Amino acid sequence: MRVRDIVITGDPVLHNKSQPVTEISDYIRNLVEDMYLTMDKAPGVGLAAPQIGIPLQIFVYDWEGESGSYRNVAINPQLEISELEERPADSDNEVEGCLSVPGERFPLVRADKAVLTAQDIEGNTYEIRAEGWLARIFQHEFDHLQGLLYVDRLDKKNQKSALKAIKEHGWGDEGLSWSPGEDFLEP
């Protein structure tokens, strides 16, 4: 197991749709272990394979809330979400960050509910009905597999601020990454 570098916005692997996993092999099992280790070291509550440069439909998540504790892998996930409200994002309670846009945080409206259907590391299909932050995590990570970053979904004002921050950091080009545990990034 090893901590993987996290790819920064601008790399094509983050901006293209990922491929399905056709077989849960030793390679996939080792990759998932590396993803857990990387997510924990970053630290984060989720990590998608494209974020470590692998264009496969896999994400891991780790979240504890009032409804329970959730730590699992989602292989070839499908996601259904409740209706998305058209309103301004709450800048106190709906702020997201992303390990591929490190240190930046912006408010974003997400659906309140989501149903995740995916395979676990053994190939078993499972379903989780999520609300609140867990639903937000699922939407955020699922977007990565579709080639979307949360900054792509921001309203016009916040997207302008995000693009300015990306430019100021010198991001937006292929091949940029950071190393959890080695590079210091302010959350």
Task: Describe it.
- This protein has 187 residues and is of the alpha+beta class.
- The protein has a single domain (6-178), classed as Alpha-Beta Complex (Peptide Deformylase).
- The protein is built from three helices and nine strands; from the N terminus they run βαβββββββααβ.
- It has a five-stranded antiparallel β-sheet with strand order 2-3-4-7-8, sandwiched between helices. Strands 1-9 form a two-stranded antiparallel sheet.
- A hairpin with a 2-residue loop joins strand 3 (58-65) and strand 4.
- The longest helix has 16 residues, at 26-41.
- It is globular.
- The two termini are 25 Å apart.
- The mean pLDDT is 95.
Concise account of the structure shown:
This protein has about 190 residues and is α+β, with helices and mostly antiparallel strands. It is built from three helices and nine strands, in the order βαβββββββααβ.
Please give a handful of descriptors for the protein shown:
24% helix; two-stranded antiparallel sheet; Peptide Deformylase; 5-stranded antiparallel beta sheet; 187 residues; 3 helices; globular; single chain; alpha+beta; 9 strands
Fold blueprint:
Blueprint: E1 6-7, H1 26-41, E2 46-48, E3 58-65, E4 68-81, E5 95-98, E6 101-107, E7 113-119, E8 125-131, H2 132-145, H3 156-169, E9 177-178
Antiparallel strand pairs: 1-9, 2-3, 3-4, 4-7, 5-6, 7-8
